[in-house]
């Protein structure tokens, strides 16, 4: 299993980023996919997940109304669109499936 995140970076408060996670080594279309994040000095927390078909999603309270998780099963890729970013969204964002993790992508929200 390989999960490769991309799309992180430095953005000003109120800005947007779109994270991508390219997956391989398993049957992507049959698995729930998760996005987690870990801020400095804090535990890793679930941000959002999406079911295998994409019909159902879940968001942490901190992400509701600002973040959108989606997937393209033809491309074996899951996305996290993040809008109205806040400094408290600063973290390393990880893609996850079962017990497998990507290397993470840094998101920094700062003016």
Keywords:
11 strands; 4-stranded antiparallel β-sheet; 111 residues; 0% helix
How many separate helices? 0
Counting helices, strands and paired strands, the structural category is mainly beta
In percent, how helical is the residue content? under 10%
Uncertain stretches of 5 or more adjacent residues: none
Annotation, overall tally of beta strands:
11
Average predicted local confidence, pLDDT: 98
User: What characteristic shape results from the CA principal axes?
Assistant: globular
Alpha-carbon distance between the two ends = 37 Å
Beta content comes to: over 45%
Explained architecture:
With 111 residues, the chain is mostly beta strands. 0% of the residues lie in helices and 51% in strands. Strands 2, 4, 5, 6, 9, 10 and 11 form a seven-stranded mixed beta sheet that branches. A hairpin with a 6-residue loop joins strand 5 and strand 6. It is globular, with a radius of gyration of 13 Å.
Short structural description:
The chain is mainly β. The chain has strands at 2-6, 9-11, 17-24, 33-38, 45-50, 57-59, 67-72, 77-82, 91-97, 100-101, 105-109.
Topology overview:
Blueprint: E1 2-6, E2 9-11, E3 17-24, E4 33-38, E5 45-50, E6 57-59, E7 67-72, E8 77-82, E9 91-97, E10 100-101, E11 105-109
Parallel strand pairs: 2-11
Antiparallel strand pairs: 1-3, 3-8, 4-5, 4-9, 5-6, 7-8, 9-10, 9-11
